[in-house]
Amino acid sequence: MKILISADMEGATGVTWPADVLPGTPQWERCRRLFTSDVSAAVAGFLDGGADEVLINEAHWSMRNLLLEELDDRAQMLTGRHKTLSMVEGVQHGDVDGVAFVGYHTGAGTEGVLAHTYLANSITGVWVNGARASEGRLNALVVAEYGVPVVLVTGDDKTCEDAKDYVPGARSVAVKDYVSRYAAVCRTPARTAADIREAAREAAVLAVRHEPARGGPFTLELEFDAEHLVGAASVVPGVEHSGERRVAYTSPTMYEGIRCFKAVTTVVSAAVEEQYG
């Protein structure tokens, strides 16, 4: 049994505001250890549950945040940027039996600690086939096309609620409770590590590959906080103005859908001006 852990940071233990997740800040240095603790707990739990191999895919910001020297040494880590499937890189090779979303968060425009979708700001909402889409929902649709189930989700309580909608059979662990976008009631790392390890152990039994999903086509719609970003996004072929501060495009598969999404967010981020956005 091989497990892929997609590790994001906003949903990690103790993380509540931007300085906790922005590389180079003192708070980020501190929170890297909390993030690493969550991921190591998931590794240990999956191995407790019978997994033979765990690959961690770094999925936050620079994708160079986890402390390799402090990870459970039975795992391997894929770190760095510019990966074909970004946050779920590794699922496409046919040897992964289950995926875990560790340190995830809710989507742009919704309640949740550090809620966003791909870009920290600028995007105020994302929908796929009419359903509000967090990064978790988008990535779950991608891995389903490879016949791989999402078996575990960790983050704040709102993230766990979101996951119950798009992967209702997965185990979930709330490491903190939402108060505002920049505040939460946090559990200690000792407690969250124990909770994550136990949930991962239980989730291992769910790691059974199935027939690849064929749910396309997928229409993705993005809403921005400024109209000029619509013009920027529309440079990407197939992306069209769909409403006030909105663009949309349709892809036959989520593999193509997420790659176009990456292109749109890259172009949009380059069009944002300091202070005014």
Helices and strands, with pairings:
Layout: E1 2-7, H1 26-48, E2 53-58, E3 76-78, E4 98-102, E5 123-128, E6 131-132, H2 135-144, E7 150-156, H3 157-166, E8 171-180, E9 183-186, H4 189-203, E10 218-224, H5 228-233, E11 240-243, E12 246-251, H6 254-270
Parallel strand pairs: 1-2, 1-4, 2-3, 4-7, 7-8
Antiparallel strand pairs: 5-6, 5-10, 8-9, 10-12, 11-12
The profile of the biggest β sheet is: 7 strands, mixed
Distance between the termini: 45 Å
Q: Structural class of the secondary elements? A: alpha/beta
The radius of gyration computed from the alpha-carbon positions, rounded to a whole number of angstroms, is 18 Å
What report would you give on this structure?
There is one protein chain. The chain is of the alpha/beta class. It has 6 helices and 12 strands. The protein has helices at 26-48, 135-144, 157-166, 189-203, 228-233, 254-270; strands at residues 2-7, 53-58, 76-78, 98-102, 123-128, 131-132, 150-156, 171-180, 183-186, 218-224, 240-243, 246-251. Strands 3-2-1-4-7-8-9 form a 7-stranded mixed β-sheet, with helices on both faces. A 5-stranded antiparallel β-sheet has the order 6-5-10-12-11. Strand 1, helix 1 and strand 2 (53-58) form a beta-alpha-beta unit. Helix 1 (26-48) packs parallel to helix 4 (189-203). The model has no long low-confidence stretch (mean pLDDT 98).
